[in-house]
Every structure is written in structure tokens, then in C-alpha cells.
Amino acid sequence: MPSPVKALLDANVLYSNHLRNLLLQLAQNDLFDARWSERIEQEWLRNMEPLTRERIASSTIPLIRTWFTDALVVGFDPERVIGATHSKTRMARREQSTASHFYSRSRKGKKSGCGDGHKTPPLKRPPLS
């Protein structure tokens, strides 16, 4: 039975022989489902020495594709933005959320639209039972 966990193996993981072999053996033993894309393979090959690149392209990649037939991810757009992935957008949303949280806490106990500037009395704690 295949594992419900899917792991995307990036080029930096595939680059190292030992790490690649370890992770692929774990995937072969159904600890997780290994996934990668042709773009990841190309990045992996691009960073290898020329002789090693030829050996991996002609031998290693066809071999792991044979053993891991479902591993190659196709039909996706790596440039597609999912949610707020830009750090400035995430920071702005976090600041907005924090500011609205503190604003709503500071308005507790005040009548809406009063704007009289008086401090809100501290909340009374219920007695311990």
C-alpha cells in the first residue's frame, strides 16, 4: 500500500548520491511517495560536472523513472502564485491583522463612536470556585 505522504524531492536532495539513495530507498519501502519534476531533474543535471551529468542523464534518471513510475510530476505551472507568497504581502497582512486585533481590544468597553478619550476600566475577573 503506497504511503499517503508525498514528498517533493528538490534538486539539492537529488544532487547528493548518498542522500538521493537514502531517500529513494525510504520511498521504495513506502515511507513516503517520492515526487519530482523534469524542471527539478534539469536543475540537478545543470549543477553536475559534465561527465557525471552524462552518466546521470543516460543511466540514473531512466533507472529511477523505471522504479518510481508515478514520481514525475507533470501538468503544473511553477510560476503560478498560490495565496500570499510574497514576503511583503504576508508581512502587510500580518501587520493589518495585528493592528485590527489591538484596535478591537482597545475599543472594548467603550460605546461605539463615543470618542471621549477616557480610559476603559479594567475587566473584573470572576471569583475562583
Describe the structure concisely.
The protein has 129 residues and is mainly alpha-helical. It has helices at 11-15, 17-28, 38-46, 50-67, 87-106, and strands at residues 6-8, 33-37, 72-73.
Please, could you describe this protein's structure?
The chain has 5 helices and 3 strands. By secondary structure, it is mainly α. The protein has a domain at 6-70. The chain has a 3-stranded parallel β-sheet. The model has no long low-confidence stretch (mean pLDDT 78).
**Mean pLDDT across residues:** 78
Number of helices: 5
Write down the Rg: 27 Å
Low-pLDDT parts are none
Order of helices and strands: EHHEHHEH
| Percent strand | 5-15%
The end-to-end span amounts to: 53 Å
Which strand order do you get reading across the main beta sheet?
A: 1-2-3
User: Which structural class fits the helix and strand makeup?
Assistant: mainly alpha
* Share of helical residues: 40-55%
Number of strands: 3
The geometry reads as elongated
Please outline the helices and strands.
Layout: E1 6-8, H1 11-15, H2 17-28, E2 33-37, H3 38-46, H4 50-67, E3 72-73, H5 87-106
From the structure above, extract its key features.
single chain; mainly alpha; three-stranded parallel sheet; 5 helices; 8% strand
